[in-house]
Each structure stands twice: as structure tokens, then as C-alpha cells.
Amino acid sequence: MKKTTTILAMALGLAFAGAAHAQQKTMSIGTGGTGGVYYPLGGAVANVLSKNLPNLQATAEVTGGSVDNLKLIGAGKSELAFTMADAALDALQGQDKFKSGKVPLQALLVVYPNRMHVVTVEGTGIQTMADLKGKRVSTGSPGSATEVMAFRVIEAAGLDKDKDMKRERLGVAESVNAVKDRKIDAFFWVGGIPTAAITDLAATPGLKMKLIDHGDLAEKMNAKYGKLYSSSKIKAGSYPGYDKDNSIADVWNLIVTGDKMSNEDAYTIVKTLVEKKADIVAVHKEAESFSLDNQVQDRSPIPFHPGALKYFKEKGIGG
């Protein structure tokens, strides 16, 4: 009898555990490679959401970057994704890498500007964009928006990505290793500042890192692709031993979802990320941009989720 009672209690315990487990939502967040900024930021976002929202378990997934993340949303395999605005617009419109189908998207938060780094080292003979001709260059991993933007920068510089260079498709950590091993001469990377892998390159003894100016190309890119890019700077001192400003093109990053998220969930997620910003900044300072004054539709080609707009309006922001 005692044994039966114990088994019954165990069964009931399991049933209750099952019911409690059923209420817990899991949320997958598409980020990027481990050498970039999306991944640590995504980890911080997952922690903040899991800690502050009962019954939610959020996890940050390592991915190839924006393009992969948007495809995961389209396939219903991720609920949230970090993405660059240009790749998101392509997905929404079913263009370029999304010709196989449009991805229904809604923006939750405009996060921070992603800054294009055109990176080389002394001894490669590369001083300007034109000098990339004939060189071995990585344009980013295949699933990334680095590749999308790199192609546009190369095109605006009057170069042909296929004919004018020997092209590799490496993520930022792999690109840094390839430069150190002299397997490539330069690489493109669009990310936050500082990007860990680039800090590592800049601090490597016996190498002098160089960043190539290209900010003057933003206007040309906008003329063709819509008002997505702006001319900006990577300030002197952003990386070890780098003592001059670098003129660059940048583009805003977004956190997006598909068309399945309820208004209540979107409201709660946005409110939590804005109000617990300090916990995310502690992991990476680019999260300083998770602020209400950045939540303007001009910065996002993707319409804001109604739940996000509800929170912005409460805070006196027009959205």
C-alpha cells in the first residue's frame, strides 16, 4: 500500500511538474557569431527576459548573423532576432537573399548603429578602397548582413566583388585569424564598437591594424537602396593603438519578431528591455542605445509591433 501511495505521489508530482512546464514559454533569440556583438548582447537580453518575466525561458542562439536570423523567424524557429535594417527590409520585401519568399516582420526595438569596419594591416599595400583591387578579401559569413552591406560598399566604391578581388566568406573571428596567418589581406565586418575579435587583432604584437575610410560612399548606397545608411566615424581610441578617426558608413540594428507575437508579449518584452537596460549595458556598452529616444520609425524600415507602440506612447514617444 505504502509503495502504491509513493508511486501515486510521484505520478501526481510529475503531472504537476508537467502542467507547470507547459505554462513556461521558451523563446529563441537569433544573434550572430561568437566574435561579434550580437551574441554577447543577445545573451544579456535572454538573461534579462528570463529573470524578469515569469514562465519565460529565453536563449541566445549562435548563428551566421542577420540573414540567418531572419530566415529562422520566417521558418518559425526563432521568436526574436537581432538584424541590420538593410537585411530586414530585403526580407520584408522578398528581395536579394530572400527571393524565395517574404518574411512578415515587426520591429520591437531600434537598438544601436552597426558600424562598417574595412580592416587590414600594414604591409598589405591597402590604403584606400581602390587598393582592394586584386587582393584577398573576406566579405563576411554567408548568413550575415555584413555580406549584404559589404557588397553595397564595394559596388559604391566602383569595384566588382567577383572580378576585382579573391573573395572569402568568413565570420569576424575567422577573418582575424586569416589576417594574422596572412591568408587574406583585408576583411569587412559590420558591428558594434568594440567588436571583441577586432580588439584582439589591434592588440596583436607585431601587427599594425588599419581601418579604411569609406564614409563618403553612404550617399551613393542610399541613392540605390533607400535611406538606410549614414556617414559616421569610428572614433580614435575605440581599438588598442588606433589613434585616428575612421570615416565609415553605418546602419541601425533592430530587434524584430514575426507576425505571431501577441500585443501583450511585445509590450512586456519592450518594457523590460528598456527599463532593465543597465543590466544589458553591464555586458556591452552598445546597449546604451536601447533608449526611448531611438524609437523613431525613421530608423526602422520595419513597422513597429502594436505592443511596442503602446509602450512608446505611454512614455510619450511617437514611435
Describe what this molecule looks like in 3D.
The chain is α/β, with parallel strands linked by helices and 319 residues long. It contains eleven helices and ten strands. It has helices spanning 2-23, 38-52, 66-74, 85-93, 145-156, 172-180, 196-202, 218-225, 263-275, 277-281, 306-314; strands at residues 25-30, 56-61, 80-84, 106-121, 136-138, 166-168, 186-191, 209-211, 229-234, 246-257. Strands 1, 2, 3, 4, 5, 6, 7, 8, 9 and 10 form a ten-stranded mixed β-sheet that branches. It starts with a helix and ends in a 5-residue tail after the last helix. Residues 15-21 have low confidence and may be disordered.
Give the overall shape, derived from the CA principal axes: globular
Instruction: Estimate the strand proportion.
Output: 15-25%
**Uncertain segments of ≥5 residues (pLDDT<50)?**
15-21
Largest sheet: 10 strands, mixed
Structural class call reads alpha/beta
Counting DSSP H or I runs of 4 or more residues, the number of helices is 11
User: What is the typical, i.e. mean, pLDDT?
Assistant: 93
Give the radius of gyration. 22 Å
Could you give the count of β-strands? 10
For the termini, the CA-CA separation is 65 Å
